[in-house]
Amino acid sequence: MVRSDTADRRRWNSESSGMFSIKSVHLFLQSRLELFITEPGLLDALHKLWKNDIPSKVGVFGWRLLLDKLPTRAALASKGILSNYHDLPCVFCFQAVEDINHLFFSCYKVLDVWRQVYSWMGFDPNCLVVGWKHFLTFGSLVKSKKGMKVKHLVWLATTWCLWRMRNNILFRGDVADFSGVFDHIKFISWLWFSGRAGRNSGYVYPNWCIDPLCCLQNI
Ligand SMILES: [Zn+2]
Questions:
Q1: What is the pLDDT of residue 192?
Q2: Ligand 1 centre and the CA of 12: distance in Å?
Q3: How far apart are the CA of 61 and the centre of ligand 1, in A?
Q4: Domain count, the chain
Q5: What local confidence, expressed as pLDDT, does residue 22 receive?
Q6: Checking CA distances to 130, which of 42, 74, 115, 194 falls within 20 to 30 Å?
Q7: Mean pLDDT score of the chain
């Protein structure tokens, strides 16, 4: 046990400086995950997630989403925190139990958002997979010289905005108004793109709104 902890600390500070860093934490978590996750596709998705230039809190959110660890109503019910069946429906449609696959990929309200996003990106909107498969499929459609840094920006902006909207409905009493979600996704993803990977690209927001794939492919 002592030897294991020591080895973990060494791995945690695995960079030559011996200092704590996000990269060393990522490497540590990645090595731990490989002990428990046997699905190669999920491991691939988690590995690619960390390579995107996104705020760290969004990286953690994406990590939890891909691992099905977000506190959805179905997840809270499985832990005994919610016990009343009337507390379980999706707050977007009230037609199904809110779990990760429904909330982010199957709810008809959310499918409308994905159709707008896919159309904006110039992709075929018929994406029938869910979870990490959806993440990998979306990333495979983005060809960029920057590689993984921008492949999933729009995917993460979409799921992040949906999660924020869901939380605002539940905890602030907002109404489920989808009219501004797509514009919000465009703006959030632009902030991430222009703030990090695309900082020196020369593109401006109208370029992003008209042809995001061109911006991503040519930075
Ligand atoms: Zn729903």
A1: 92
A2: 40
A3: 20
A4: 2
A5: 63
A6: 194
A7: 86
Residue range of the domain that includes 14: 1-36
- Cα(83) to centroid(ligand 1), Å: 19
Q: Are residues 14 and 86 in the same domain?
A: no
Q: Assess whether 133 and 162 both reside in one domain.
A: yes
Q: How many residues does the chain have?
A: 219
Check whether residue 31 and residue 80 sit in a common domain: no
Distance 109 CA to ligand 1 centre (A): 6
Does residue 147 register a pLDDT over 50?
yes
**CA–CA gap between residue 218 and residue 201 (Å, rounded):** 8
The verdict on 48 and 88 lying in the same domain is yes
More confident residue, 12 or 65: 65
106 C-alpha vs ligand 1 centroid, how far in Å? Answer: 7
Which helix (H) or strand (E) element contains residue 49? helix 40-49
Ligand 1: centre distance to CA 85 (Å):
15
Give yes or no: residues 15 and 75 share one domain: no
Q: Are residues 31 and 44 in the same domain?
A: no
pLDDT tens per residue across span 25-45: 667 766 777 777 778 899 999
The helix (H) or strand (E) run that includes residue 3 is helix 2-12
Amino acid occupying residue 30: Q
Residue 97 Cα to ligand 1 midpoint, Å, equals 8
31 in the same domain as 53: no
